[in-house]
Amino acid sequence: MESILALDIEELAAAIRDRRFSAQSVLHAYRARAEAVHQACNAVAFWLPTAEQEARKADEHLQRTGAVLGPLHGIPFTVKDHVAVAGTPITLGMRTLQRHGLTTKNDDNLVVVLRALGAIPFAKSTMVQLGMSIGGGSPAHGDTLNPWDTRRTSGGSSCGEGALVGAGASPFGIGSDVGGSVRIPAAYCGIASLKPTVGRISEAWVAAI
């Protein structure tokens, strides 16, 4: 597992493509790491039960055809709570939505693109309620802590992504940012983040509810 977690995304994609690691073994390694980080930091809102099947299909496709599904074939990733993943819960950090069991009908456009490139979402991460704070906590999921020092916050509003990616529990993660919501957790957790130019990526990330 440690050898898998030590690889960057390009190295990991090459290792899967060359069949040094299967997509399933990569998923299992990151899932195990994410479970440990979640126990320490409370970073996961929901596990995505379809990930195992998607990884198995990716392995079967590569074995059958000798070709990858795309440049991110078999790479697992995590998604902020309010980014839509078809058939999965969404709370926006709100206890009310959590209680009502709201689920999304379709994938967010970015998730659609990443799936088409071969990537596999395996967890939805915690977020600050409605994305309205730089601290890492919500009524729905409680406080999310910093993996480098659990006496401190991981930052917000993409608190779960900061903790998971910062602790090496996800190769990459998807958040959202208006006033610092990926940049602040990245700074708190010692990782890089990217806020694309406004309009460069579809802003309909919760339109699939």
From TrEMBL:
GO BP term (any one): fatty acid catabolic process
A single GO molecular function term of this UniProt record: amidase activity
Gene3D superfamilies hit by this protein: Amidase signature (AS) domain
Domain Amidase: 26-205
InterPro entries referenced in this protein's UniProt entry, alphabetically: Amidase_dom (IPR023631), AS_sf (IPR036928), Endocannabinoid_amidase (IPR052096)
Superkingdom of origin organism: Eukaryota
Protein name: Faah-1 protein
Gene behind this protein: faah-1
